């Protein structure tokens, strides 16, 4: 493809992403579906360039002001994630001059908000929580791309065997530092056609998500509910931990998301999973199971701000109002899910948010209203669930699990674990 044609495609995608009317990953998929002839490398350049614009939008929009021509093209030039010589082939003489001039600007001297590239409303709570130094580490960490983590399905394979099979195909990986189920891949190989993937030996899953399933510690023969199962990333991990025995209900209000679980279930070899579309958290089917369940995982709908490495658009699509609404929804879901538990049963509340409002604040509201639930220190639960005791300590904060991209190199996660008193 001619360099200018590729640059124009980048600009077209940037234009549509900056409308923020749909999630970026869905827009990118639609874009590639509409441009089927693109090769792997071209897709990589287009997607990475567009995501770089989302990550550094304030900085790039500021720098782009000095240029000429359509704004989306200027942004794509500044964020270009492909081969540099190839880009030069796309640029007019005046664009080359402009790019050189922009390149000479010392970005470290620009105002703070152009350097952290976060919306104002997020800065204050994150600085209050982390302090100045860690805030900047976090800002850097969320503005870089995430690695690709796999969870090995221990029903079908051992971690070291999958690692060896990947190596045979030329893909290097290392065991994840905290999760005993995980492998972290070097680069971003296309996995869909590999045997280890098609035969259900691995699923793509961030290490943090694996730790949430570990915290649930679902066991053989138990009755377990994954209350917000979505496409079932955590359901699959829970089902494997149950060794394909007992009963695992996968609830979600979205039938569309539950449909995506089906092919994954087929690959996984699990037959203990029962997907159920519920109308809301007060659905009658939940009432019928009240007091009968051993473990409930509530992987609540949240702002997703812990996944900014993968979903940088979320920082521009969320707002203080949406976070407030989510907080209320999270409390309602957690209250309802808690009714399912037997005495002695375990409740895990989790989000992939960085904000106290969706995490500690929700856990606190729940704890105050439920004296019949006792908080289980995350550190102890993790150590019991095969995570090295020292590492378990590094993952916990005030009795909760707290994962941060800049410290743990996973997505940002929160989890609280309670036991219903006997
Ligand atoms: C964080 S996502 C779940 C991701 C999933 N657990 C996984 O590991 O792939 C939150 C899910 O909550 C679902 N949800 C939203 N409101 C709900 C409700 N009232 N009851 C149950 N699920 C709900 C959403 O449809 C979404 O799939």
From TrEMBL:
Amino acids binding S-adenosyl-L-methionine: 252, 299
Alphabetized Pfam families for the sequence: Methyltr_RsmB-F, RsmF-B_ferredox
Keyword Protein biosynthesis: no
Single Gene Ontology MF annotation: RNA methyltransferase activity
PROSITE patterns from the UniProt entry: SAM_MT_RSMB_NOP
Active site: 352 (nucleophile)
GO annotation terms (biological process): RNA methylation
Gene3D superfamilies assigned: Sun protein, domain 3, Vaccinia Virus protein VP39
Domain spans labelled SAM-dependent MTase RsmB/NOP-type: 138-421
Keywords: Methyltransferase, RNA-binding, S-adenosyl-L-methionine, Transferase
Family note: Belongs to the class I-like SAM-binding methyltransferase superfamily. RsmB/NOP family.
PANTHER family in the record: NOP2 YEAST -RELATED NOL1/NOP2/FMU SUN DOMAIN-CONTAINING, RIBOSOMAL RNA SMALL SUBUNIT METHYLTRANSFERASE B-RELATED
Protein name: SAM-dependent methyltransferase
């Amino acid at each position: 493809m001619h360099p200018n044609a590729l640059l124009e495609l980048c600009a077209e995608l940037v234009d549509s992403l900056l409308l923020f009317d749909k999630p970026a990953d869905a827009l990118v998929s639609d874009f590639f579906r509409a441009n089927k002839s693109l090769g792997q490398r071209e897709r990589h350049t287009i997607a990475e360039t567009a995501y770089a614009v989302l990550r550094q939008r304030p900085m790039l929009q500021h720098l782009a002001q000095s240029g000429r021509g359509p704004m989306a093209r200027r942004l794509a030039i500044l964020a270009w994630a492909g081969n540099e010589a190839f880009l030069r082939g796309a640029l007019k003489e005046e664009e080359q001059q402009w790019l050189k001039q922009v390149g000479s600007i010392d970005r470290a001297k620009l105002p703070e908000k152009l350097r952290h590239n976060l919306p104002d409303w997020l800065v204050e709570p994150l600085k209050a929580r982390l302090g100045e130094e860690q805030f900047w580490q976090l800002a850097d960490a969320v503005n870089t791309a995430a690695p690709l983590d796999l969870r090995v399905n221990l029903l079908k394979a051992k971690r070291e065997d999958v690692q060896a099979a990947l190596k045979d195909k030329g893909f290097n990986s290392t065991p994840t530092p905290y999760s005993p189920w995980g492998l972290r891949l070097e680069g971003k190989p296309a996995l869909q056609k590999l045997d280890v993937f098609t035969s259900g030996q691995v699923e793509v899953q961030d290490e943090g998500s694996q730790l949430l399933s570990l915290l649930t510690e679902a066991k053989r023969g138990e009755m377990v509910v994954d209350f917000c199962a979505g496409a079932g990333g955590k359901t699959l991990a829970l089902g494997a931990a149950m060794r394909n025995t007992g009963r695992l209900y996968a609830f979600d209000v979205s039938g569309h998301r539950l449909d995506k679980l089906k092919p994954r279930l087929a690959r996984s070899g699990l037959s203990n999973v029962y997907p159920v579309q519920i109308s809301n958290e007060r659905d009658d089917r939940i009432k019928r199971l009240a007091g009968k369940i051993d473990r409930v995982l509530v992987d609540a709908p949240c702002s997703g701000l812990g996944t900014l490495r993968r979903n940088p658009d979320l920082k521009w699509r969320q707002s203080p109002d949406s976070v407030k609404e989510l907080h209320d929804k999270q409390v309602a879901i957690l209250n309802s899910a808690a009714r399912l538990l037997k005495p002695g049963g375990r409740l895990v509340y989790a989000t992939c948010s960085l904000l106290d409002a969706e995490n500690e604040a929700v856990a606190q509201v729940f704890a105050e209203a439920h004296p019949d639930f006792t908080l289980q220190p995350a550190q102890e639960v993790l150590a019991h669930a095969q995570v090295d005791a020292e590492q378990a300590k590094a993952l916990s904060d005030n009795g909760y699990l707290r994962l941060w991209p800049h410290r743990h190199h996973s997505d940002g996660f929160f989890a609280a674990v309670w036991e219903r008193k006997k």
